[in-house]
Amino acid sequence: MEAHHLALSSHITLSFFLAILPSSYCTDDARFTECSRPFECGRAKNVSYPFWGGNRPEHCGHQGFKLECYYYYEYPIIKFEELEFLILNINESQNNMAIARLDLWDGSCPQTSLNTVLNYSIFDYAPTVLNITLFYGCPPQVKTLIPVQNRFTCSLEGSDANNNAYFVNESLARIHILEPEKCSGKIRVPISRNAIINESAGVVPALHEALNQGFEVN
User: Fold this and answer.
1) Do 184 and 162 touch, CB atoms closer than 8 A?
2) CB 3.0 to 4.6 Å from 149: which of 46, 56, 191, 199, for a disulfide?
């Protein structure tokens, strides 16, 4: 009889402690399981903190590091303001990554004239970055000192018939458009200083290759 009461008492005691145990233990275990899963997308493998997205909930990363994945791109995408960027490489040991503007991927004719803007609270340009300026919708008679190898054609959706375009490298300050106001748009785009725009191969393919190489941010 006493043994029966002892067993009943032990059962009640155990039930009491189970009832008062904080549910956070189970929650923490679930979060650990969720955050132990890496983000993977195309060529990107084993991406972890501070990045999140996909099967990694927001609490597994840091604000501003959300990644998205689309089956038709082989790289994950990160968004700053209105622009989306392909993440070409993440170097965890150097705390930097190489990114490229999605709207200029395999092309140099964006749909909107937006300068490249980062989230400077968490990212900054690496010393390897060089800026170029692309001018669009310039009439044939625009006065320019830009050599012919820096010119290409670009038909912007919804723009006028002028499809003359130019790019200016910041290291060649003496080369500039004298009447930039006659061009319908311009954007500033970072590229890698190691990217060589070889005009002998044709300015458009060379420019595309430089844009596709992307640039580094810390």
Assistant:
1) yes
2) 199
pLDDT digits (tens, 9 = 90+) for 109-135: 777 778 888 888 888 989 988 888 888
**Beta-carbon neighbour count of residue 20 at 10 Å?**
7
The pTM assigned to this predicted structure is: 0.79
Q: Please list the alpha-helical segments (H only) found in the chain.
A: 2-20, 24-35, 203-213
Contact 54, 69 (CB under 8 A): yes
Residues constituting the chain: 218
CA 146, distance to chain mean position in Å, is 30
Phi, psi of 148 (to 5 degrees): -60, -30
Burial (CB < 10 A; 0-12, 13-18, 19+), residue 92, is exposed
